[in-house]
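Give me C-alpha cells for this 247-residue protein.
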Amino acid sequence: MRILVANVNTTTSMTDSIAASARAAAAPGTEIVGITPRFGADSCEGNFESYLAAIAVMDAVTSYPEPFDAVVQAGYGEHGREGLQELLDVPVVDITEAAASTAMFLGHKYSVVTTLDRAVPLIEDRLKLAGLDARCASVRASGMAVLELEEEPERAVEAIVSEAMLAVTRDKAEVIVLGCGGMAGLDEQIRQRAGVPVVDGVASAVTIAESLVRMRLSTSKIRTYAAPRPKTVIGWPLNSAGVAAQL
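Here you go.
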C-alpha cells in the first residue's frame, strides 16, 4: 500500500517531519511518500495561502508519476480536499476531519489547539462544514506561527500545553486535537503534560486511509464528488507551457 502525504506548504523540512510522523503511525507494509507542492507559500496561515495551497496540492498529487492507494492532505483547516476527491479514484483523507472524528471516539467534547489566532475562524468553518463542530468545545490559538513550530520546538510545546490546559479546565474539553500539520509528533509530550488524550491529525489520517484501502472503500462518485466534466482549462499549473489542458 502506498499513501501520499501532501504537505500544504513549500517548506520541505516540514514535509519530512510530517512524513516521519506518518511512517511512525503506518502499519508494516505501508509506504509513505511525502510530497511538497512546487509552488505556494512557505506556511499557510490565512485564506489566501489556504486557497493557493489547494491548487498547489492538487497539482502535486496529480503530477505524482507512480500509482498510489490513498492521499492524506496534511494541512489543518486548509481547502482542497473536495477537489482532490473529484480528481481521484482513491480515498482522500484530510487531517482536520480525521483528527476531529477520532477525538469524538475518545471523549464527550474535544478542543483544537492551533497556531495563530487568525487561523481559528478558518478551522471553525471547516469543522462546521464537515459536521464536526457540535462536539468541539473550543478552538484555541497557541500564538506560535507555523514555521516557529520547527524553529522553537520547546517553546511550541509550552505554548500548546498552556492552551490545552485552559481548554480542559475552562472549556471542559476531554480530548485535545493538534490543529496544525507542523505539530505532528508532539502528541505524546503534550498528553503527558495535559493528562488527556491528544490526537495528532497526521497519524489519525494515515490510520483512516489505511483502513479505507483495506476495506476497498473510496469516495462516492455518484453526485457531489463526480469527476470534473471534460472541458478546457486555461493555465492549469500542470501545463508549464501555458497551453490549455483537458480535464
